[in-house]
Structures are given as structure tokens and as C-alpha cells.
Amino acid sequence: MTDEAGPWLVVGLGNPGREYAGNRHNVGFMVADLLAQRVGAKFGRHRRAVAEVAEGRLGFGGPRLVLVKPLTYMNLSGGPVAALSQFYKVVPGQVVAVHDELDIGYGQLRVKCGGGEGGHNGLRSMTKSLGTKEYVRVRFGIGRPPGRQDPADYVLSDFGAVERKELEFLVDRAADVVESVITRGVEPTQNLYHGG
Q: What is its main location (predicted)?
């Protein structure tokens, strides 16, 4: 992809505030933070949207990235995303949402374009605000809650001790998946990463 295609808007979904930082629901923020480190960019408050934004390039002369962490709560993420996609003139096919996913096992990564929201409030808000489902999702599996735990409580709890041992590696892999979507496309990335 060259610059003529315009920048990519990579949205890490999560909740703002230190108390949410280690939550399963905030894995999108973790991936966005790592991508910012990789491109040597720092997050700062955007003047046109309730979000932190970091801008950089993937590699020398590579595609332009606009990394986004909405500062609204999860269920209002769509407003800042829509404002930024208009500001940077990003088409929906070049919007990538990175989010936690209850319906796949811990650490599994799946990529898709379009489709349902699976009850995810951040995705539901994005779809409503963008007016389309046709954006890319990088789904980070967190698995189902144990026993009878309420899924809402589960996503707002921190990763467990055993999960945390692998978390850094998995966030790194999720960042690789995002980069692959941007440089290779959705289908080649699915072929590459959906095996495991």
C-alpha cells in the first residue's frame, strides 16, 4: 500500500483510566501502545476528537498509521472514531478495530472485515457512528468467563496470573497481525495467522 491510499486508522478499544489499564476489555489499548512504540510515536490528545492519537509510518516510507485510543468509555467509542476518520479522510476499509473477543479462546487471534458485533459495545458504537460494518476487526481471544461469572464483570477484570505470563507475547503477536493486515491485506493475514 502506498500513501495514495491514505492513512490507516488503527483503533485500540478500551476504557480510559488507570483502574481499567490491566482489564481484559483493554487489550486493544495494549496493542495500540505497542504499535506506537514500534513506529516511534507518542500518544497525545487530539484537538478534534475525544481521543489520544499517535501518528507514524510502518517502516521507512511505509503506510501511514494513525493510532487511536478513544477517551470515551467503550460504549461511546464510535464518536471519536467517526470524527477522526473524517478528519484524516480514512475510508472504512482502512479502519482497523483491535478488541477483546469472548467467543474465541484466550490468546487466539482472528481477523475479519465486516460482520456482526457479537455483543461488543465498542464495535456496536463504531458501526453506528461510521454508518457501516465494513471495517476490519482484529479479535483478541479472551475466552469465556469461568463458571457463572457475568461476562460484563469478566471483561472488566484483570488478566489472571497464568494469562499474564503469555500476555506480552500475545500482544506482540496481535501487533504483528495489525501490521500484516496493513501491509498484506485481510485474506493473506487470515491465511497466515488463523492456523493457531
A: cytoplasm
Find the domain containing 60 and state its range: 8-194
Q: Tell me if 3 is assigned to some domain.
A: no
For range 45-52, the mean pLDDT: 95
Q: Is 23 annotated as a binding residue?
A: no
d(CA 94, CA 193): 19
| Geometric angle at alpha carbon 153, from 157 and 116, rounded to 5° | 105
Beta-carbon contacts of 14 under 8 Å, excluding residues fewer than 6 positions away, are: 20, 23, 25, 26, 27, 28, 29, 30, 69, 70, 74
CA distance 102 to 22: 16
Contact (Cβ atoms closer than 8 angstroms) between residue 174 and residue 138: yes
Any domain includes 77: yes
1 found inside a domain: no
Average pLDDT, the chain: 94
Residue 193 is labelled as binding a ligand: no
Tally of domains in the chain: 1
Residue 25 falls in the annotated catalytic set: yes
**Per-residue pLDDT tens for 13-28?**
999 999 999 999 999 9
Q: Please give the distance of CA 135 from its chain centroid, rounded to a whole number.
A: 11
20 is in an annotated binding site: yes
Residue 95 lies in a domain: yes
pTM score, two decimals?
0.95
